[in-house]
Automatic annotation (TrEMBL):
Record organism: Reticulitermes speratus
Active site (record annotation): 370 (proton donor/acceptor)
Function: Involved in the digestion of the blood meal.
GO molecular function, one term: zinc ion binding
Superkingdom of origin organism: Eukaryota
Protein known as: Zinc carboxypeptidase A 1
Length: 411
């Protein structure tokens, strides 16, 4: 009887995991204003469709995940609008099932697989233990569901200016978390003299997973979860923590509907995760000049702002620096990035962490990566691409850090 009950419980748990069998991701390119407006309308009333990227501009591709039961309706809609569509992913569940290696590598931690929050935290503990004079643990506080938001400070000497690395604010963007841990590891272990020099020239505050509830949820329950896990209105969970920062909050490119993927939260910093991160950054705001945030996907290197296209005071410097960084990124594998401010390069948006940092502290070097790929795998980038992705990303970060080192303090 007991065994039967156990089986029942196990199957209930397994059955509660979201699946995406035969969900397609369709790419649509609006070619005129009417099509663009219709897509925007559809995004506001998605009815089961999930927009992986947002309609914003004519000729700019939009990726939409379509459940199998919605395919006939979706096809009717695109036909009626004369929209051309392409099947970018034919079965999202297949990507999820093959995303990770069949056999977990034997090492405790590494970059040929994606790791759980507990495994990442255990690895952070091991760094503190193995580098006692260099690595110190940091806790931002506890998430909505009570998890510690963990990070570390890496400091080889006193008196350094600081760099912040932010990962995982969007739960499903696993490559962000893996890339941040990869860079952290290289700061401590690289035998490349350039990286060793940069590791020693700055202090680094590294937060691989600033939305731990969401990250855990993507591992246990729904691989495609993006938001936090706070309970909002209409029995919908979560807000987009990267629309929740108190800078031009909810002005543009964010939603006030609790069920939306880009719900900005009930008020600025309503999400404890965003609030705790902002509190910590405020407490060290006189110490850092570089803020690097990691997302996926699209292969973009972005700088402020998202709420309008007005150039920041060092726009030319950031554009040239971003372009040089993207060139360095392309060297290993030819991975092509587009560089620019958020508003013009991806889409208008507000309340994002990087813009808040720039707007409130006037931090001179703030960048956000939208990592691999350009849509073949989307958010479900195979673990076999982690090392190449992280290594090329590190190469681009090196360019930014070297420039910062040469140009700080700012006159
Ligand atoms: Zn993101």
């Amino acid at each position: 009887m007991l065994r039967f009950l156990c089986l029942l419980v196990v199957s209930a748990v397994l059955a509660d995991r979201a699946t995406y069998h035969n969900y397609q991701v369709r790419r649509v390119v609006p070619e005129n204003q009417e099509q663009l407006e219709a897509l925007t309308e559809l995004e506001n009333n998605p009815n089961g469709l999930s927009f992986w990227s947002r309609p914003f501009r004519v000729q700019k591709a939009v990726d939409i995940m379509v459940p199998p039961h919605m395919l006939p309706r979706f096809n009717e809609i695109v036909a009626s609008l004369n929209l051309k569509t392409e099947v970018y992913i034919s079965n999202v569940q297949h990507l999820i099932d093959t995303e990770r290696p069949k056999v977990r590598p034997r090492a405790d931690f590494g970059w040929t697989d994606y790791y759980t929050l507990d495994e990442i935290n255990a690895w952070l503990d091991s760094l503190v233990e193995n580098y006692p004079n260099v690595v110190t643990p940091i806790s931002l506080g506890r998430s909505y569901e009570g998890r510690e938001i963990r990070g570390v400070k890496v400091s080889f000497k006193e008196g350094n200016r600081a760099v912040i690395l932010e990962g995982g604010i969007h739960a499903r963007e696993w490559i962000s978390v893996a890339t941040v841990t990869y860079i952290l590891n290289k700061l401590l272990t690289s035998d490349d003299p350039v990286i060793q020099d940069l590791a020693q020239s700055f202090d680094y505050y590294v937060f691989p997973s600033v939305n731990p509830d969401g990250y855990v949820y993507t591992h246990t329950t729904d691989r495609m979860w993006r938001k936090t896990r706070s309970l909002g209105g209409n029995r919908c969970y979560g807000a987009d923590a990267n629309r929740n920062f108190d800078f031009h909050w909810l002005e543009i490119g964010a939603s006030n509907s609790p069920c939306s993927e880009t719900y900005a939260g009930s008020s600025p910093f309503s999400e404890i995760e965003a609030r705790l991160l902002s509190n910590f950054l405020t407490s060290i705001s006189d110490k850092f000049d570089v803020y690097l945030a990691f997302h996926s996907y699209s292969q973009l290197l972005l700088f402020p702002y998202g709420h309008n296209s007005d150039p920041v005071s060092n726009y030319d410097e950031l554009l040239a620096l971003g372009t040089a960084a993207a060139e360095a990124l392309a060297k290993n594998n030819g991975t092509e990035y587009t560089v620019g401010n958020i508003y013009d390069t991806i889409y208008p948006t507000s309340g994002v962490s990087m813009d808040w940092v720039r707007g409130v502290f006037d931090t001179p070097y703030t960048f956000t990566w939208e990592l691999r790929d350009t849509g073949k795998y989307g958010f479900v980038l195979p673990a076999s691409q982690i090392i190449d992705t992280a290594e090329e990303t590190l190469n681009s970060a090196v360019v930014i850090l070297q420039h910062a080192k040469e140009n700080l303090p700012r006159k």
